[in-house]
Amino acid sequence: MAEWKRLPSVVLLELCDAIQPSYVVQDLFTTTTTDAELSSRLQSQWLTAFHLSLACKRFREVITPVLYRRTSIHGGRTALKLASLLRFLVKYPNLASGVRQLTLNLEVPEAGFVRLSSEDFDGILAAARGSQIPVPQYLDPVPGNSNNRIAQKQSQFGFDCASIRYLLEISLYHMRGLRELGLAQPWPLFTSHLSALPTTFNHEVDGMDRRVLSKHAKYSKDISSERSALFTLPHLTSFAVRPSYCPLIAGLDFQACATTIGLGPNITRLYLSTDWVQMNGSVPSRSLESVTDLTLDKMPLVPDDFASIVESCGSLETFKYLPARDGPPGNFLEIEFPVLTYLLRHHDTTANTLRTLCITVHQVAGYTYSHTETFLRFPNLENLWIEVWDLRGQRGDDAQYQGHAFYRILTTLPRSIRRIHLKGDLSQLSTDLVFLAQNTWKYPQLRVVEIEARHTDEPDDAGDEERSDGETDHEGSDEGNEEDDSDGKMD
Fold first, then answer.
1. Are residues 392 and 340 in the same domain?
2. Domain presence at residue 253
3. Is the pLDDT confidence value at 489 over 50?
4. Rounded-to-integer distance, Cα 127 and Cα 150, Å
5. Contact between residue 191 and residue 197 where contact means Cβ atoms under 8 Å apart
6. Number of domains forming the structure of the chain
7. Same domain for 213 and 290?
8. In terms of domains, do 211 and 179 share one?
9. Helix 337-345 and helix 303-312, axial crossing angle in degrees, nearest 10
């Protein structure tokens, strides 16, 4: 331990960085499929650094501000953990203002909830009074509220969506320096109809402070004025949200989710994932105008809903649409390729700004891949990740490649293309890559070509992935890890 005390501060910081490597919340949500996997990825390095900080006072003094820059809460007893977080944030405001990445796995248990203590409520009330979030009168020990009534109401607080939502909002208020936010949430957490929540909180709505109910109702109706009147997170640039797979999961209310998105007027990266989505009307026009990096994962959208989301964003530099990650087309309601490219081409200046595109393409009835709907319409496209299912060519194609899935794609790429990741049938891919190798002069910027077998291919083929430079590639579902953290583009 004496050696630890003699180490220069810069060495301690480098050691902490090695123990707790940085991550991008959006990428973690893309590459993990369960809450347990997400928590295992987040927690191991943090615990190592935390135990070291307990063992050495000097290490703790230097490392603690760095350690809490990335904070994660997962598992059960969500309300209790949020209440503990609030007490920490109020006690250490300097550390609270230094939090940069926050990942929360929010759950609403059916039974066995842990009731909050009086100390927890003292911390909640102190945090609420230190913010601009209204304090529910039935929780506030002010003149006119009996201790028995407060105790009764408090005993029913903390195990429903409205309570968790309230705690989350106060927590976010105290972390004004937040840059990345990841939420795994039960669907009712953000709903357009707070008074109709299908939870035990139904019975307590009448007792809530009407100021709070009124504010919450306005949050969902107008994210631009009512939210900013209370507080915003000006440094928040990345927001990822997906369901938490707990018993109350029912999907994602997108328009109500925009309530949280509205907290960050400068969000540029947005990741949304759900097996079931409820739009509750169109997205407010230009409500996501700062978003230039959009990922929609397993979202069953009809074209009108898809158009509503895209049109609410600014001109896109990165777009990922991943409806078929876990199976063939048909598992999810997908936007057909010609519709998708049409909407992207006609959205603001996306046709010229798009640099990274990740999509799934498959044959649809009465449709053949046409030059008028190809990637040539995106003259600055640099990175293409594409999965193809049974895409056929046209009569005019070279007979050698007639019917090959990727032939039409490889003949219609812009000269700006730098990296291609192809996922599909390996027997077709091998032939198509020969064609590509013979025509590399068409793509002077091309540096990396990756191929990947679909999971439905034979097991022996699954590992037979190749690169044009001879390197072995990772699984396609991890494509987000290849991105540069600063701008969301793939190198």
1. yes
2. yes
3. no
4. 18
5. yes
6. 3
7. no
8. yes
9. 30
Range of the domain at 402: 281-484
Q: Residue 93 carries which side chain, given as an amino acid letter?
A: P
pLDDT at 280: 58
User: What's the rounded mean pLDDT across residues 89-105?
Assistant: 86
Q: How many CB atoms lie within 10 A of CB 59?
A: 22
43 or 383, which is more confident: 383
- In the predicted structure, residue 45 carries a pLDDT above the cut 90: no
Same domain, 62 and 175: no
Over the chain, what HEC string results?
CHHHHHCCHHHHHHHHHHHCCCCCHHHHHHHCCCHHHHHHHHHHHHHHHHHHHHHCHHHHHHHHHHHCCEEEECCCCHHHHHHHHHHHHHHCHHHHHCCCEEEEECCCCCCCCCCCCHHHHHHHHHHHHCCCCCCCHHHCCCCCCCHHHHHHHHHCCCCCHHHHHHHHHHHHHCCCCCCEEEEEECHHHCCCCHHHCCCHHHHHHHHCCHHHHHHHHHHHHCCCCHHHHHCCCCCCCEEEEEECCCCCCCCEEHHHHHHHHCCCCCCCEEEEECCCEECCCCCCCCCECCCCEEEEECCCCCHHHHHHHHHHECCCCEEEEECCCCCCCCCCCCCCHHHHHHHHHCCCCHHHHCCEEEEEEECCCCCCCCHHHCHHHCCCCCEEEEEEECCCCCCCCCHHHCCCCCHHHHCCCCCCCCEEEEEECHHHHHHHHHHHHHCHHHCCCCCEEEEEECCCCCHHHHCCCCECCCCCCCCHHHHHHHECCCCCCEC
Q: Do residues 208 and 321 share a domain?
A: no
Contacts 24+ apart (CB under 8 A), 226-231: 227/259, 227/262, 227/263, 228/262, 228/265, 230/132, 230/133, 231/131, 231/132, 231/173, 231/176, 231/263
Whole-number Å distance between alpha carbons of 136 and 164: 14
| 62, 99: one domain | no
Do 340 and 357 reside in the same domain of the chain?
A: yes
Q: Per-residue b/e over 330-362, b at no fewer than 16 CB within 10 Å?
A: eebebbbbeebbbbbeebeebbebbbbbbbbbb
pLDDT tens digit sequence for 256-265: 566 667 778 8
